[in-house]
Amino acid sequence: MTLPQITLDNNEVIAYRKKDGGEQTILLVHGNFYSSLAWEELIGVLDPKYTVYAVDLRGFGESSYNHRVTQIKDFSDDLKDFVDKLGIGDFYMAGWSAGAQVCMQFEVDYPGHCKKLALINPASTRGLPMFEMNADGTPDFTKRQTTLEEIENDSSKQPGREEFIAFSEARIYTHKKRSPEKQEMYVEDMLKQRNIVDVAHSLNTFNIGSINNGVRDGTNQAKGITIPVLILRGDRDNIIPAQMIDEIKDDIGDNATYAQLTDTGHSPFVDNLPELKEQIEKFFI
Which CATH architecture fits 5-128+205-283? Predict the structure, then answer.
Protein backbone atom coordinates (compact mmCIF):
# COMPACT_ATOMS: atom_id res chain seq x y z
CA MET A 1 0.00 0.00 0.00
CA THR A 2 1.40 3.38 -1.04
CA LEU A 3 0.58 6.08 1.47
CA PRO A 4 -0.01 9.73 0.58
CA GLN A 5 2.81 12.03 1.66
CA ILE A 6 3.34 15.70 2.43
CA THR A 7 6.59 17.65 2.70
CA LEU A 8 7.00 19.84 5.77
CA ASP A 9 8.87 23.13 6.02
CA ASN A 10 11.84 21.29 7.57
CA ASN A 11 12.00 19.04 4.47
CA GLU A 12 10.78 15.96 6.32
CA VAL A 13 8.33 13.93 4.26
CA ILE A 14 5.43 12.67 6.36
CA ALA A 15 3.38 9.69 5.18
CA TYR A 16 -0.14 9.21 6.45
CA ARG A 17 -3.33 7.23 6.16
CA LYS A 18 -6.68 8.86 5.57
CA LYS A 19 -10.17 7.44 5.88
CA ASP A 20 -12.76 9.75 4.38
CA GLY A 21 -15.86 10.36 6.43
CA GLY A 22 -17.99 13.13 7.84
CA GLU A 23 -17.16 16.60 9.10
CA GLN A 24 -15.72 15.47 12.45
CA THR A 25 -11.99 14.76 12.25
CA ILE A 26 -9.79 12.47 14.35
CA LEU A 27 -5.99 12.63 14.24
CA LEU A 28 -4.23 9.45 15.41
CA VAL A 29 -0.62 9.36 16.64
CA HIS A 30 1.15 5.99 17.01
CA GLY A 31 3.68 4.92 19.63
CA ASN A 32 7.28 3.72 19.58
CA PHE A 33 8.28 0.77 17.34
CA TYR A 34 5.16 1.21 15.20
CA SER A 35 3.67 3.50 12.55
CA SER A 36 0.20 4.49 11.39
CA LEU A 37 -0.27 0.79 10.59
CA ALA A 38 -0.91 0.27 14.32
CA TRP A 39 -4.28 1.99 13.94
CA GLU A 40 -5.64 -0.06 11.03
CA GLU A 41 -8.07 -2.13 13.14
CA LEU A 42 -9.51 0.93 14.88
CA ILE A 43 -9.71 2.96 11.67
CA GLY A 44 -11.67 0.12 10.09
CA VAL A 45 -14.42 0.17 12.72
CA LEU A 46 -14.77 3.86 13.59
CA ASP A 47 -18.12 5.46 12.82
CA PRO A 48 -18.20 6.85 9.25
CA LYS A 49 -19.14 10.26 10.64
CA TYR A 50 -15.41 10.69 11.35
CA THR A 51 -12.75 11.61 8.84
CA VAL A 52 -9.59 9.96 10.17
CA TYR A 53 -5.92 10.82 9.68
CA ALA A 54 -3.11 8.64 11.05
CA VAL A 55 0.47 9.84 10.60
CA ASP A 56 3.80 8.06 10.35
CA LEU A 57 5.92 10.17 12.68
CA ARG A 58 9.38 11.25 11.51
CA GLY A 59 11.66 8.23 11.31
CA PHE A 60 8.84 5.68 11.40
CA GLY A 61 7.11 3.73 8.65
CA GLU A 62 7.17 5.49 5.29
CA SER A 63 8.15 8.93 6.63
CA SER A 64 11.62 10.40 6.17
CA TYR A 65 14.30 10.86 8.80
CA ASN A 66 16.47 13.66 7.47
CA HIS A 67 17.05 15.34 10.83
CA ARG A 68 17.51 13.50 14.12
CA VAL A 69 14.96 14.22 16.83
CA THR A 70 16.27 15.30 20.22
CA GLN A 71 12.99 15.75 22.07
CA ILE A 72 9.30 14.84 21.87
CA LYS A 73 8.58 18.41 20.81
CA ASP A 74 10.26 17.72 17.46
CA PHE A 75 7.45 15.27 16.67
CA SER A 76 4.69 17.61 17.87
CA ASP A 77 6.14 20.48 15.84
CA ASP A 78 6.05 18.21 12.78
CA LEU A 79 2.44 17.43 13.62
CA LYS A 80 1.54 21.12 13.74
CA ASP A 81 3.03 21.72 10.30
CA PHE A 82 1.24 18.60 9.04
CA VAL A 83 -2.23 19.77 10.12
CA ASP A 84 -1.56 23.29 8.89
CA LYS A 85 -0.50 22.12 5.45
CA LEU A 86 -3.54 19.84 5.08
CA GLY A 87 -5.89 22.47 6.49
CA ILE A 88 -7.00 20.23 9.34
CA GLY A 89 -8.55 22.24 12.14
CA ASP A 90 -10.90 21.75 15.07
CA PHE A 91 -10.12 18.04 15.48
CA TYR A 92 -10.05 15.29 18.07
CA MET A 93 -6.72 13.65 18.78
CA ALA A 94 -5.72 10.23 20.12
CA GLY A 95 -2.22 9.08 21.00
CA TRP A 96 -1.09 5.58 21.88
CA SER A 97 1.82 4.93 24.26
CA ALA A 98 4.66 7.31 23.30
CA GLY A 99 2.26 8.94 20.85
CA ALA A 100 0.32 10.20 23.85
CA GLN A 101 3.33 12.28 24.86
CA VAL A 102 3.47 13.76 21.37
CA CYS A 103 -0.21 14.69 21.64
CA MET A 104 0.21 16.24 25.08
CA GLN A 105 3.19 18.31 23.91
CA PHE A 106 1.15 19.42 20.88
CA GLU A 107 -1.67 20.63 23.10
CA VAL A 108 0.79 22.42 25.41
CA ASP A 109 2.36 24.33 22.51
CA TYR A 110 -0.60 24.72 20.16
CA PRO A 111 -3.86 25.08 22.10
CA GLY A 112 -7.01 25.89 20.19
CA HIS A 113 -6.73 23.20 17.51
CA CYS A 114 -7.67 20.00 19.36
CA LYS A 115 -11.13 19.76 20.96
CA LYS A 116 -10.60 16.63 23.04
CA LEU A 117 -7.62 14.37 23.67
CA ALA A 118 -7.64 10.60 24.22
CA LEU A 119 -4.51 9.01 25.70
CA ILE A 120 -4.36 5.24 25.13
CA ASN A 121 -1.97 3.28 27.37
CA PRO A 122 -0.01 6.52 27.63
CA ALA A 123 3.55 7.11 28.69
CA SER A 124 3.67 9.61 31.55
CA THR A 125 3.75 13.39 31.55
CA ARG A 126 7.01 12.79 33.45
CA GLY A 127 8.63 10.65 30.76
CA LEU A 128 9.33 6.98 30.22
CA PRO A 129 12.55 6.11 32.08
CA MET A 130 15.36 4.15 30.45
CA PHE A 131 17.55 1.76 32.44
CA GLU A 132 20.55 -0.45 31.83
CA MET A 133 19.56 -4.06 31.23
CA ASN A 134 20.42 -7.16 33.22
CA ALA A 135 21.85 -10.25 31.53
CA ASP A 136 18.37 -11.84 31.50
CA GLY A 137 16.92 -8.91 29.56
CA THR A 138 15.11 -7.29 32.48
CA PRO A 139 15.77 -3.65 33.40
CA ASP A 140 18.11 -2.84 36.27
CA PHE A 141 16.06 -0.23 38.09
CA THR A 142 19.12 0.88 40.08
CA LYS A 143 20.90 2.06 36.91
CA ARG A 144 18.94 4.87 35.26
CA GLN A 145 20.37 6.09 31.98
CA THR A 146 20.61 9.87 31.85
CA THR A 147 22.40 10.75 28.59
CA LEU A 148 22.04 10.08 24.89
CA GLU A 149 25.52 8.56 24.88
CA GLU A 150 24.55 5.95 27.47
CA ILE A 151 21.56 4.93 25.38
CA GLU A 152 23.60 4.90 22.15
CA ASN A 153 26.07 2.51 23.77
CA ASP A 154 23.33 0.16 25.00
CA SER A 155 22.83 -2.62 22.45
CA SER A 156 19.45 -3.51 23.98
CA LYS A 157 18.13 -0.15 22.73
CA GLN A 158 18.90 -1.17 19.14
CA PRO A 159 16.92 -4.38 18.58
CA GLY A 160 16.92 -6.45 15.41
CA ARG A 161 14.26 -8.74 13.95
CA GLU A 162 14.51 -11.48 16.58
CA GLU A 163 14.53 -8.95 19.41
CA PHE A 164 11.45 -7.23 17.99
CA ILE A 165 9.61 -10.54 17.77
CA ALA A 166 10.58 -11.52 21.31
CA PHE A 167 9.58 -8.09 22.63
CA SER A 168 6.21 -8.24 20.88
CA GLU A 169 5.44 -11.70 22.21
CA ALA A 170 6.56 -10.95 25.76
CA ARG A 171 5.29 -7.40 26.24
CA ILE A 172 2.71 -6.39 23.61
CA TYR A 173 0.65 -9.39 22.54
CA THR A 174 0.39 -11.18 25.87
CA HIS A 175 -3.29 -12.09 25.49
CA LYS A 176 -4.66 -12.15 21.95
CA LYS A 177 -2.41 -12.34 18.92
CA ARG A 178 -2.64 -11.38 15.27
CA SER A 179 -2.42 -14.06 12.59
CA PRO A 180 1.13 -15.11 11.65
CA GLU A 181 0.78 -13.27 8.34
CA LYS A 182 -0.36 -10.08 10.04
CA GLN A 183 2.31 -10.35 12.69
CA GLU A 184 5.02 -10.67 10.04
CA MET A 185 3.70 -7.50 8.40
CA TYR A 186 3.97 -5.68 11.73
CA VAL A 187 7.51 -6.94 12.32
CA GLU A 188 8.51 -5.64 8.90
CA ASP A 189 6.93 -2.32 9.85
CA MET A 190 8.91 -2.20 13.10
CA LEU A 191 12.14 -2.76 11.20
CA LYS A 192 11.56 0.44 9.22
CA GLN A 193 12.14 2.55 12.32
CA ARG A 194 15.34 4.60 12.01
CA ASN A 195 15.22 6.62 15.23
CA ILE A 196 15.11 4.07 18.06
CA VAL A 197 17.95 5.54 20.12
CA ASP A 198 16.76 9.12 19.60
CA VAL A 199 13.22 8.24 20.63
CA ALA A 200 14.45 6.41 23.73
CA HIS A 201 16.41 9.51 24.75
CA SER A 202 13.41 11.76 24.04
CA LEU A 203 11.12 9.59 26.14
CA ASN A 204 13.67 9.47 28.94
CA THR A 205 14.01 13.26 29.12
CA PHE A 206 10.39 14.26 28.47
CA ASN A 207 8.89 16.02 31.48
CA ILE A 208 5.93 18.38 31.33
CA GLY A 209 4.99 17.26 34.82
CA SER A 210 5.33 18.93 38.18
CA ILE A 211 8.45 17.27 39.64
CA ASN A 212 11.96 16.20 38.67
CA ASN A 213 11.90 12.80 36.95
CA GLY A 214 15.47 11.86 37.80
CA VAL A 215 16.86 13.37 34.61
CA ARG A 216 15.04 16.67 34.06
CA ASP A 217 13.07 19.13 36.15
CA GLY A 218 9.38 19.22 35.31
CA THR A 219 8.13 22.22 33.33
CA ASN A 220 4.61 21.86 34.80
CA GLN A 221 3.25 22.61 31.31
CA ALA A 222 0.73 19.78 31.65
CA LYS A 223 -1.36 22.11 33.81
CA GLY A 224 -1.88 24.15 30.66
CA ILE A 225 -3.82 21.31 29.04
CA THR A 226 -7.38 22.46 29.74
CA ILE A 227 -9.37 20.55 27.12
CA PRO A 228 -11.17 17.33 28.13
CA VAL A 229 -8.71 14.43 28.36
CA LEU A 230 -9.64 10.74 28.47
CA ILE A 231 -6.99 8.34 29.76
CA LEU A 232 -7.44 4.68 28.81
CA ARG A 233 -5.25 1.88 30.14
CA GLY A 234 -5.52 -1.87 29.76
CA ASP A 235 -5.74 -3.73 33.04
CA ARG A 236 -3.10 -6.18 31.75
CA ASP A 237 -0.68 -3.59 30.35
CA ASN A 238 2.82 -4.58 31.45
CA ILE A 239 4.59 -1.67 29.74
CA ILE A 240 2.75 1.32 31.20
CA PRO A 241 2.37 0.94 35.00
CA ALA A 242 -0.70 2.27 36.79
CA GLN A 243 1.54 4.81 38.52
CA MET A 244 1.97 6.64 35.22
CA ILE A 245 -1.79 7.10 34.94
CA ASP A 246 -1.82 8.70 38.38
CA GLU A 247 1.02 10.99 37.34
CA ILE A 248 -0.85 12.15 34.24
CA LYS A 249 -4.03 12.80 36.21
CA ASP A 250 -2.14 14.71 38.90
CA ASP A 251 -0.20 16.80 36.39
CA ILE A 252 -3.11 17.70 34.10
CA GLY A 253 -5.83 18.09 36.72
CA ASP A 254 -9.56 17.55 36.98
CA ASN A 255 -10.21 17.77 33.23
CA ALA A 256 -8.45 14.39 32.88
CA THR A 257 -10.66 11.35 33.48
CA TYR A 258 -9.67 7.69 33.53
CA ALA A 259 -11.33 4.52 32.26
CA GLN A 260 -9.91 1.01 32.44
CA LEU A 261 -10.00 -1.33 29.45
CA THR A 262 -10.86 -4.82 30.65
CA ASP A 263 -8.78 -7.90 29.88
CA THR A 264 -6.51 -5.72 27.77
CA GLY A 265 -2.73 -5.42 27.46
CA HIS A 266 -0.66 -2.74 25.76
CA SER A 267 -2.39 -3.26 22.39
CA PRO A 268 -6.13 -2.69 22.83
CA PHE A 269 -6.49 -2.80 19.04
CA VAL A 270 -5.95 -6.55 19.29
CA ASP A 271 -7.10 -7.38 22.82
CA ASN A 272 -10.32 -5.39 23.09
CA LEU A 273 -11.18 -3.42 19.97
CA PRO A 274 -14.94 -3.19 20.74
CA GLU A 275 -14.39 -1.52 24.13
CA LEU A 276 -11.72 0.79 22.71
CA LYS A 277 -14.06 1.87 19.89
CA GLU A 278 -16.90 2.42 22.37
CA GLN A 279 -14.78 4.55 24.70
CA ILE A 280 -13.35 6.64 21.87
CA GLU A 281 -16.69 7.30 20.18
CA LYS A 282 -18.45 8.02 23.47
CA PHE A 283 -15.79 10.61 24.28
CA PHE A 284 -15.41 12.18 20.83
CA ILE A 285 -18.90 13.68 20.59
Answer: 3-Layer(aba) Sandwich (3.40)
